[in-house]
Design a protein that fits this description.
This protein has 566 residues and is an alpha/beta fold. Helices cover 28% and strands 23% of the residues.
Length: 566
């Protein structure tokens, strides 16, 4: 994750790894021994304090963990350290007597030299260039995936949202077809129309949802039209992130919902496709954001090709500890934060190739450990589960696995708090709530923030959909209210100008760069205050009988109502 002030890079898109022969299965745990990390004698305490946070961040961001990439020696060692730290501070093992919930990852690598996927007009290929015009891949665990003469149809935003009275697939059978769609949702295009959530992106605006929905509808292929403003990132992010190896959860045959081919095209390519089909791009995309839109066939256009993939599986793990509730142990409050980062890169001699990820997300992992230790010292009435998840940087995969394989049933999960990248800044007057206006957890947050003489501020870039780009969404989309709050930008010394400058400096110079390193010069006052606040919110919840819900109109409200009908 990143500071929210000027973030323009899509979270969870940095994908790594090397290809292996087709269908080869390897276990990273046995490929190489984890680097030796000498244990350090420490004396952390049960209160939220700067010294404990510094110790844990400095340890996790140390070069010895080699950037904490999942399924690498450094990642194995880092996750072991987190488990050892949970044991040391008194958290119970959270998964079947272990601190580790195994997460098997699948790496699919497209052989671009042997693969070809294109759009055809009246049977003639358009010769779209991989990387420049189109980026395509398949998430199917197959060495060869083919699509043949699949008819294109424009389905607007590709959304089925009953709570908003919206269905772009109404009366449409797209089985075997290629669906073409826009990024974001209709509210972005018409922010004053009352559609969806205005210019604040909903879950239906995320590319992940759009690919999944298209597959559920039976589409053979998906073409997502890239536009910089509604996507909130440039084509360079798309071309850089979806070329090369792609990671997903390893699943048994038949599990998962995927079209044969997923892809993006540039806006220029999309405009050309519409022109060839005799369609007005501007008029039709505007109509797609209006109620009553009906999908339109793109006459004369088909897609087709064969993708050749190599695959391998890799073993990683979520690290889970818990504090047993004293009165209602079967009801759980969750804290999540990802322990992984980007690992290492080959660089010339003398350059730093270790992506230490001190802010992103040694800070969040240190915070949830600090909070866990505080709950051990102050046992709550309800149980509290601390989950350090893996593979966030590869697409929220560790939390997605938890969402598909929850340790605690969702109807016994009261709510949760996600901590992802806390900036080391002086104290702030505000608390930034990502996805502001989502759930009743914000009511508790506002009350506790007021006790620190702080106020809640909405995410300054709601159209970018940051609420859907961190690990809490993997649990939220199953109905559980989740809170994602960040240290504020309105600093007590320097105001928003100073806060935005700090965010800009991190974004430009350190986000997803080797320079994201811990420094003893960090001002930890704001971080310590924010971690204390998030502990207090969870403690309020864990020592009550309240069951917060999503606010009326939220896309996840119906799921929660079904889980807890009382």
């Amino acid at each position: 994750m990143r500071n929210l002030v000027l973030a323009a890079t899509l979270s969870g898109l940095a994908l790594g790894g090397c290809s292996q022969p087709a269908e080869e299965t390897t276990s990273a745990a046995t490929e190489a021994a984890a680097p030796a990390v000498e244990p350090v004698a420490v004396a952390t305490t049960g209160d939220i304090n700067e010294a404990d946070l510094r110790y844990r961040i400095a340890t996790l961001a140390d070069d010895s963990f080699e950037g904490r990439a999942p399924a690498t020696p450094g990642g194995i060692a880092a996750s072991q350290w987190v488990a050892d730290e949970m044991a040391r501070i008194g958290l119970e093992p959270g998964y079947e007597g272990s601190y580790f919930q195994p997460v098997s990852l699948l790496e699919v690598t497209l052989d671009s030299t042997q693969s070809d996927y294109d759009v055809y007009f009246n049977g003639e290929p358009l010769d779209l260039a991989m990387g420049d015009d189109i980026v395509y891949w398949s998430k199917l665990s197959q060495p060869e995936v083919s699509v043949d003469a699949s008819e294109l149809v424009f389905v607007g935003y590709g959304v089925v949202a009953p709570e908003y009275g919206w269905n772009d697939y109404a009366g449409l059978d797209v089985t075997g077809k290629t669906v073409v769609m826009l990024v974001n949702d209709p509210g972005y295009a018409n922010p004053d129309s009352g559609l969806f959530n205005g210019d604040a992106m909903t879950y239906y605006g995320r590319w992940t949802y759009k690919y999944e929905e298209a597959a559920r509808q039976g589409a053979a292929a998906v073409i997502l039209i890239h536009q910089t403003a509604p996507a909130s990132y440039g084509w360079n992010v798309v071309s850089g992130s979806w070329s090369g190896s792609q990671l997903d959860l390893a699943r048994d045959p038949g599990e998962g919902t995927f079209a044969e081919v997923e892809s993006w095209v540039t806006e220029d390519v999309a405009r050309h496709l519409f022109e060839l089909a005799g369609l007005d791009f501007n008029a039709l995309t505007a109509r797609a954001a209006e109620p009553g839109f009906v999908a339109v066939p793109m006459t004369g256009l088909t897609s087709g090709g064969t993708l050749h993939n190599s695959t391998r599986t890799m073993d990683s793990r979520n690290v889970v500890g818990m504090v047993r509730g004293t009165e209602r142990p079967d009801e759980f409050v969750l804290y999540t934060g990802h322990w992984d980062h980007l690992g290492t890169r080959d660089v010339p001699d003398g350059e730093d190739g270790i992506y230490n990820g001190a802010v992103d997300n040694a800070s969040g992992t240190a915070a949830i450990l600090e909070i866990g230790e505080a709950f051990v010292a102050n046992p709550p009435e309800r149980s509290v589960m601390i989950i350090a998840v893996t593979a966030e940087e590869s697409g929220l995969l560790g939390s997605a696995y938890y969402g598909e394989n929850p340790i605690v049933p969702f109807d016994q999960t009261v709510g949760g708090i996600n901590i992802d990248a806390i900036m080391p800044t002086p104290p702030s007057r505000d608390v930034v709530v990502v996805g502001f206006g989502a759930s009743e957890l914000e009511d508790i947050l506002a009350e506790e923030a007021a006790l620190q003489d702080r106020y809640l501020a909405p995410d300054p870039h709601p159209s970018a959909g940051y609420f859907y780009r961190s690990d809490h969404i993997s649990i939220a989309k199953h109905g559980v209210p989740m809170l994602y709050a960040d240290a504020g930008n309105d600093l007590r010394e320097g105001g928003t100008e100073a806060g935005e400058a700090a965010g800009r400096e991190y974004n430009v110079n350190h986000y997803h760069a080797p320079s994201d390193e811990y420094s003893a010069d960090w001002n930890m006052d704001g971080m310590t205050e924010s971690v204390t606040l998030l502990y207090n919110v969870g403690a309020r919840l864990a020592n009550s009988d309240a069951w917060p819900n999503w606010y009326e109109g939220n896309e996840f409200r119906a799921l929660r109502d079904a889980q807890r009908p009382e």
